[in-house]
Amino acid sequence: MKTLLQVDFPYTGPFGDEMTTAMKELAESIAQEPGFIWKVWTENPDTQEAGGIYLFEDEASARAYLEKHTARLMGFGIPHVNGKVFGVNEALSAIDNGPVSLS
Amino acid sequence: MKTLLQVDFPYTGPFGDEMTTAMKELAESIAQEPGFIWKVWTENPDTQEAGGIYLFEDEASARAYLEKHTARLMGFGIPHVNGKVFGVNEALSAIDNGPVSLS
Predict the structure, then answer these.
(1) Which domains occur in chain B, in start order?
(2) Measured between CB atoms, which of A39, A86, A96 is closest to B39?
(3) Could you tell me where the DSSP H helices lie in chain B?
(4) Which among A39, A57, A95, B33 counts the fewest CB atoms within 10 Å?
C-alpha cells in the first residue's frame, strides 16, 4: 500500500537557492532509496523549519527511510525530527488530483 | 510561489473505503478551492490520525484554506488541527520526482 511520510524539523538554513546547492547530492541519493517514489522538499525561513513529504511503495520502506534520515539529520545537529507515517486514501486523492499513482 | 500545506489531526474514523464514501463530497468541494492544485488524503487507523498534504499556487491561498478547513474540522468535533505552511524547493523536488510542476 502506498505510504506517505511527513517529516519536519527545526532548521536554520541555508534556504532557497543556497539550500539547493547544499543539498543537491543528498537529493540524488534519496532518489535511489528502496521503495522511494517521490519527495517534495519543504522549507520555511519565517518559522525556521524544513522537511519533506515523501511517497513510498509501502510502509516498511517508509519506516526504514525515516529511521535512516532521522539519524542523518541529528548528525547534522538538528535537535529533533517530527516524522509521521500515513496510509494514502487513493480514491479520495484521485478526486483531488493527488499525485499518488505516478511512478 | 508554490506552497505546501501539511495538515494532520486526531481522527477516530471511518477509515479506508468507508472514509471514501463519507468524504467524497468534501473531496469534490476541495478541488474547487481558490489556488488549489492537489491533495493527498492521509489516514492512520493505528495512531488514530488523518490529514492531508496539499499543494497550492501561493501562500495566501494555502493560509485561507487552512483557516476554513480548521474551522470545519473543529465543527466535526476534532479537538485540534496541526497545520504547517511551507515553501517548496522546486529544484530539489525536481531531482526527487516531486510532483510540484503539475497543474
Answers:
(1) 3-95 (3.30.70.100)
(2) A96
(3) 16-30, 59-75, 90-95
(4) A57
Chain B environment of A27 (Cβ under 8 Å): 92, 95-96
CA separation for the pair B39, B17 (Å, rounded): 18
Report the distance separating Cα A75 and Cα A31, nearest Å.
20
pTM of the model: 0.96
Residues B82-97: b if buried by 16+ CB within 10 A, e if exposed: ebbbbbbbebbbebbb
Give ipTM to 2 decimals.
Answer: 0.96
Residues of chain B positioned with their CB less than 8 A from the CB of A97: 31, 37-39, 102
B28-69 per-position pLDDT tens digit: 999 999 999 999 999 999 999 999 999 999 999 999 999 999
